[in-house]
Design a protein that fits this description.
With 277 residues, this protein is an all-alpha fold. Among the domains are: 68 residues, no CATH class; 52 residues, no CATH class. 60% of the residues lie in helices and 3% in strands. The protein has 13 helices and 2 strands. The chain has a two-stranded antiparallel sheet with strand order 1-2. A hairpin with a 4-residue loop joins strand 1 and strand 2. The termini are far apart.
Length: 277
């Protein structure tokens, strides 16, 4: 089941008596309070002071929907051992691929105890998910932390996700942000999206739309379709960055090339506006 399936459908209009948080739409790590019809109340339509508020709501809607469309609830899975890896780590990967999960767990544990960070990550995933054993999330998180502390970006990202959701650990947005940053600075595309979203929402870090835009653009440059669409919208609206319709069209085109629905139409609409000037 995708996260999108947990979101309520948009509505054309809602009674003005309803609160702004008419809908709570889940993205991959949390709920974002949004309004599907924030222009229904006249004072927000005409009050200049409401412009920033309306744009904030619109961007929150966009980010929630894009991330919901891109990410699913699927958890982490073991990863291949690097070339030249410890023999136990390599054997663990071979056993895992061929469905010999109990044997894989044994070999990953041996390699993990020899401080091989990929094996530590794989052991953690198997323990948390209950692959080849009953679920043992406490022990799994301990191994995941050791792998993350040794600098393995995938472990850092996975640990950030757990802290962001409060799954198997106490929820801590600040700790999640720190681990997102550690992985993002190593080039993890998913972590860059996660860190950007933390900055955008002011969750676990001071709200900083310029910093959010920077990390979304880095993730977009690595081919993340959702990040391409989000940074395109930020350039189109001048949100966290200086307005740049040409840059917006470029990123919409990149999003469209990666299958992001509606991106090509957005790029076309900008081109029409520019041609009309």
């Amino acid at each position: 089941m995708t996260i999108r399936s947990m979101c309520p459908p948009p509505v054309a209009r809602a009674p003005p008596s309803e609160t702004w948080a008419r809908a709570r739409c889940a993205h991959r790590t949390s709920f974002v309070a949004i309004s599907w019809n924030f222009q229904d109340i006249p004072r927000y339509r005409y009050d200049p002071d409401a412009t920033a508020f309306r744009m904030e709501l619109a961007m929150r809607v966009l980010i929630a929907l894009i991330l919901a469309a891109v990410f699913t609830a699927a958890g982490a899975r073991p990863v291949a051992s690097p070339v030249g890896a410890d023999s136990d780590s390599a054997r663990g990967w071979s056993d895992y691929r061929h469905g010999r999960h109990t044997s894989a767990l044994t070999h990953y544990r041996k390699a993990a105890e020899k401080h091989h960070r990929v094996a530590q990550f794989n052991l953690a995933v198997m323990l948390i998910e209950g692959i080849g054993t009953r679920p043992r999330p406490g022990e799994g998180v301990a191994w995941l932390r050791r792998s993350a502390q040794s600098g393995f970006a995938q472990a850092q990202y996975a640990l950030a996700e757990l802290y962001d959701r409060g799954e198997h650990v106490p929820r801590s947005p600040a700790t999640a942000t720190a681990w997102y940053r550690a992985a993002a600075e190593q080039g993890s595309r998913d972590a860059q999206v996660g860190l950007a979203t933390q900055y955008f929402l002011g969750r676990g870090a001071p709200q900083d739309h310029a910093e959010a835009a920077r990390w979304y653009e880095l993730a977009a440059a690595q081919g993340d379709a959702g990040a391409c669409y989000i940074i395109a919208s930020m350039y189109e609206r001048g949100y966290g960055v200086a307005p740049d319709p040409e840059r917006a069209m470029y990123w919409y085109a990149q999003a469209a090339a990666r299958g992001e629905a509606g991106a090509a139409a957005q790029a076309h609409a900008i081109r029409q506006r520019l041609d009309a000037i």
